[in-house]
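Database export, one record per block. Field names are fixed; values are copied verbatim from the stored entry.
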Amino acid sequence: MRRQGSPLRIEQSSGVLQVSGALTVHTVTEARATFDGIAPDAVSEIDLSDLERLDTAGAWALVLLKTRFSDSGTDLAFTGTRSETDSLLQTVEQAMPEPDEVATTKRSLVQMLDALGRKVMSGVGFLRALTAYLGMFLHRLARAFRHPGQFPLTSLVHHCEEVGLKAVPIVSLMAFLIGVVLAFQGSVQLRQFGAEVFVVDLIAISILRELGILLTSIIVAGRTASAFTAAIGSMKMREEIDAMRTLGIDPAMNLFLPRILALFFMLPILGLIANMAGLFGGALMAWIDLGISPAMFRTRLVEGTSVTHVFVGLIKAPFFALIIGVVGCHAGMQVQSNAESLGRMTSNAVVTAIFAVIVADAVFSIFFARIGI
């Protein structure tokens, strides 16, 4: 593009900066380099009477120079300007971004206590809401027993497939690898004491009592709680739930009940599959690394591991299922009419479900320890 106007000239004399020629996008880099070398106390005004051309880029350079002088305590005035030049400079100055003011005031003790109290009450309200959804599920389950014709059996079978059958590969692989890792790490430590055979007890108790059902529940929480929230939330965004209520269809009976009940039925089965896969992985690694044959592993497993550990692990599964299902359904109903809300609630549902499962597992561990099981 060919430049128009006379070449840019910037001259300084007696506290006046004389700018003449064309101050445009083609010469703004040269002008900025010159302006940056001018001290704030060396100039008090800029004479633009001989300025032939000025565009937005040139006006931006002049406004930046004026702002820099103002920050240093020097008022810089533009003289010899025409009306269109004044208008352009004023427009650019008004459009300059202003930095956000950061509040530096320290919060008082009362304000901190107020914030803490609000967070506590918010948490209590959230727990009350989850309890209400659990009560809604139990009420609809009781009504389904009284009126079997209202029970959505087809939906229950579909969700059992989605929640249980399709989760078998990932749950089995996870448990198998956990068994392998436990056997390898256990053998490294127990070999120092010549007690390699006790790696069987380590694998069995760890997987059957804790890790099998806990890790399975965490995987199901991430996989299923997000699916529940996304499905129900998208229906709420499209106002399908409102349409269901208008048609006399109970959303709790047709959306919440089959989903939570499918989890209630399938999570213990997934936990049992995880236990078997974990024991298989541990037995395979013990055979490879320690030379413990499958027959010896089986014998040690039967003789040294009580069946109580299996029941202690599996008895947690229905409770974990209720937690995951209720959290997922509740989060789905909190979705607003925008996609950002759907993504946020889906993420919150996964985090909340996993956290709640871990807390519940800790409570169960303390309870069983206290009663001596």
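Remark 1: Residues 223 and 350 are 8 Å apart (CA to CA).
Remark 2: The chain has two domains: 9-95, 134-371.
End of record.
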